[in-house]
């Protein structure tokens, strides 16, 4: 049996929940959960904001732990190995995307908290392809958020072939944005943080930004017109996207990783004249996650975390709702 915390209705409190996972599939592993990060996506799924939540829901998709059982066909992992698992619990492994190493784009990918029980538990099961070994020496407590928030901001850096000479802006210095600053700084880029918070302007410099811009000041945005090769937006609220497009240089790109629910209000003329573009991406493939972990370990890039015991999961969720988390919350199993 697996002991977990589950919600039984939209927005409901998480309660102790026990379930029988059945026989371990041949290509799966069972992980003893040591830590599990809390992502804003857990709240979105808990509240059924995206319309596909199934209850009872066991959230948690930033898992780190030790493999306690392996399926008979698992050859790439072993008992006792420390691994992490993120948004996906498995893939079809036969489609063109999987065969090309783009598992994150598999149309039949299994979400770890979508029709599947996640990591707010003592154990979780995932396909072996979704369990990525942690590099030696990586800080275990802070590693979980890399498996969702970290890979979400690392993917556009890595997949775009971004040059270390690029000038890059990051909109929103929160759970995602603070990790983007660290990755971009160590990538070699000149990094600007766009934030409306005076407190976060100082923190952004400490986290890896070289410059800050007040995102609520039209004059400040106008002063950086035509500068950026890439802007990564991590926010989930509607902004004046045309103002940000005008800060891009020729062939610059505005890349959205924050799940904005409102349609984008964009003038084609802000794209056409300078051949700018707008793009987006989900989390990364297993291979990209492994690359990100190696990069993070090499440069000692760690998410800034606040730790709660797993038994205080509801208090941790309330802290996330308050908007006061700095910057990721991690649950620890005792």
Note down, in words, how this protein is organized.
By secondary structure, the protein is α/β, with parallel strands linked by helices. The protein has two domains: 2-145 and 284-332, Alpha-Beta Complex (Quinone Oxidoreductase, Chain A, domain 1); 150-280, 3-Layer(aba) Sandwich (Rossmann fold). 24% of the residues lie in helices and 27% in strands. It is built from ten helices and 17 strands. It starts with a strand and ends with a strand.
Helices, strands, pairings?
Layout: E1 2-6, E2 15-19, E3 28-38, H1 40-46, E4 63-70, E5 82-85, E6 88-90, H2 96-99, E7 110-111, E8 123-127, E9 132-133, H3 149-159, E10 167-171, H4 177-187, E11 190-195, H5 198-207, E12 211-214, H6 218-223, E13 228-233, H7 241-245, E14 248-256, H8 269-272, E15 277-280, H9 286-299, E16 305-309, H10 313-321, E17 328-332
Parallel strand pairs: 10-11, 10-13, 11-12, 13-14, 14-15, 16-17
Antiparallel strand pairs: 1-2, 3-4, 3-8, 3-17, 4-5, 5-9, 6-7
Q: What low-confidence regions span 5 or more consecutive residues with pLDDT below 50?
A: none
CATH architecture of the largest domain: Alpha-Beta Complex
Q: How many domains?
A: 2
- By CATH, the topology of the largest domain is Quinone Oxidoreductase, Chain A, domain 1
């Amino acid at each position: 049996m697996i002991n977990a915390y589950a919600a039984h209705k939209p927005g409901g409190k998480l309660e102790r929940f026990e379930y029988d996972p059945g026989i371990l599939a041949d290509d799966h592993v069972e992980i003893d959960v040591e830590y599990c990060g809390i992502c804003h996506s857990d709240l979105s799924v808990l509240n059924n904001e995206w319309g596909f939540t199934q209850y009872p829901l066991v959230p948690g998709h930033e898992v780190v732990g030790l493999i306690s059982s392996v399926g008979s066909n698992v050859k790439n992992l072993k008992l006792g190995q420390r691994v992490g698992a993120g948004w996906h619990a498995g893939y079809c492994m036969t489609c063109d995307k999987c065969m090309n190493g783009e598992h994150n784009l598999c149309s039949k990918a299994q979400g770890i908290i979508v029709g599947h029980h996640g990591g707010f538990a003592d154990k979780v099961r995932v396909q072996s392809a979704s369990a990525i070994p942690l590099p030696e020496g990586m800080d275990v407590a802070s590693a979980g958020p890399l498996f969702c928030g970290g890979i979400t901001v690392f993917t556009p850096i890595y997949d775009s072939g971004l040059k270390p000479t690029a000038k890059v802006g990051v909109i929103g210095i929160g759970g995602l944005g603070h990790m983007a600053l660290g990755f971009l700084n160590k990538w070699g880029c000149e990094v600007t943080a766009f934030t409306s918070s005076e407190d976060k302007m100082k923190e952004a410099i400490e986290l890896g930004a070289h410059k800050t811009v007040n995102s609520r000041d039209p004059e400040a945005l106008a002063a950086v017109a035509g500068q950026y090769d890439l802007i990564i937006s991590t926010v989930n609220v509607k902004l004046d996207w045309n103002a940000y497009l005008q800060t891009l240089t020729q062939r610059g790109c505005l890349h959205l990783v924050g799940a904005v629910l409102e349609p984008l209000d964009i003038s084609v003329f802000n794209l056409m004249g300078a051949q700018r573009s707008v793009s987006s991406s989900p989390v990364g493939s297993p291979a990209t996650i492994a690359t990100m972990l190696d990069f993070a370990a090499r440069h000692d890039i760690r998410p800034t975390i606040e730790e709660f015991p797993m038994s205080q999961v509801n208090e941790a969720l309330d802290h996330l709702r308050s908007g006061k988390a700095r910057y990721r919350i991690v649950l620890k199993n005792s």
